[in-house]
């Protein structure tokens, strides 16, 4: 009769896979999942430590084993779905907006592609070949990779940040903030934070940040809006001198499909109407932008936009009549 129980090597690899799945495991939980004893678990943990994996052990009711951070990055175990997701992400990152990330992504992708099984390599290439990126009218703004990592860590750990920030006017100020979340819109990265000196919530573009310093001052999280919702509203209208509100006589889903997600904010009003908020530097351009959606709308704010829409509509109506010959004398 053949013994179907895993050998020591297979068991250690299975233990490593479990430790990567969640933050903390008790010894009894690991023993139950692997069909062995807590004594064997302790011995396998020691083997992982010898291989360079920093497995930490804590005592007490909430104690257990957890995979910590070491001085060097040890090998990671990825299942098929995880390996495909990482490979596809690296391919997309090769053309991303983080300074230096393109080269690093290509190096990492080369290492991963070398060891990918043939079946997964074909899946990765199939997915990537089906994805296209449409370049916008303006180039994406690049951000410093080290700053991005530092800010993300500050958001996670709830510690204060200090940085230099360049406003639209070009003036530079020093900011002290409590960071809450990072949001990427495709062209730019934004930080949602509470500005301690201005005593209010603010949105910061990461490409305008410099001299980032992560303090050791921890803060208690304030009640706050979802960062995606807050940043979306801020970037669609707040930066512009003209704030626009219109009612579309069409379902919200149909109007959203007509515009980039970062350009407008659309809220359902009824099943057949919705409210759209946006902003702009030139109301005439906003009027044309609203008109290309292909749905009827009415201007709620500002009143001067309604006048501009009427003027443009009259001009378009005349253009649609064809050539107008001057009367003969």
Automatic annotation (TrEMBL):
This is YafY family protein. SUPFAM superfamilies: Winged helix' DNA-binding domain. It holds the Pfam family WYL. Keywords: DNA-binding, Transcription, Transcription regulation. Signal peptide: none annotated. PANTHER family: PROTEIN PAFB (PTHR34580:SF3), PTHR34580. The keyword Translocase does not apply. Gene3D superfamilies: Winged helix-like DNA-binding domain superfamily/Winged helix DNA-binding domain. Residues 8-63 form the HTH deoR-type domain. The keyword Transcription regulation applies.
């Amino acid at each position: 009769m053949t013994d179907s129980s895993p050998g020591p090597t297979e068991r250690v690899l299975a233990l490593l896979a479990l430790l990567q799945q969640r933050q903390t495991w008790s010894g009894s939980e690991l023993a139950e999942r692997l069909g062995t004893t807590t004594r064997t678990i302790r011995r396998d943990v020691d083997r992982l430590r010898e291989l360079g994996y920093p497995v930490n052990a804590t005592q007490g009711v909430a104690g257990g084993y957890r995979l910590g951070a070491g001085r060097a990055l040890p090998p990671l175990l990825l299942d098929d779905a995880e390996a495909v997701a990482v490979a596809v992400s690296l391919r997309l990152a090769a053309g991303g907006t983080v300074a230096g990330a393109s080269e690093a992504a290509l190096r990492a992708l080369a290492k991963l592609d070398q060891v990918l099984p043939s079946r997964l390599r074909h899946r990765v290439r199939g997915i990537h070949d089906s994805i296209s990126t449409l370049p916008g009218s303006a180039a994406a703004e690049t951000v410093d990779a080290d700053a991005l990592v530092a800010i993300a860590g500050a958001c996670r750990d709830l510690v204060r940040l200090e940085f230099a920030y360049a406003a639209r006017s070009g003036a530079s100020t020093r900011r002290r903030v409590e960071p809450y979340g990072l949001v990427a819109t495709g062209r730019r990265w934004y930080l949602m934070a509470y500005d301690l000196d201005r005593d209010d919530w603010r949105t910061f573009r990461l490409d305008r940040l410099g001299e980032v310093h992560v303090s050791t001052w921890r803060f208690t999280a304030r009640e706050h809006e979802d960062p995606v919702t807050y940043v979306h509203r801020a970037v669609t209208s707040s930066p512009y001198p003209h704030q626009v509100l219109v009612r579309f006589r069409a379902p919200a889903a149909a109007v959203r499909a007509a515009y980039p997600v970062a350009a407008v904010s659309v809220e359902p009003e009824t099943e057949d109407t919705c409210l759209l908020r946006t902003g702009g530097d030139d109301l005439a351009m906003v009027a044309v932008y609203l008109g290309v959606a292909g749905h009827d709308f009415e201007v709620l704010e500002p009143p001067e936009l309604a006048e501009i829409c009427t003027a443009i509509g009259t001009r378009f109506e005349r253009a649609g009549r064809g050539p107008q010959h001057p009367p003969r004398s």
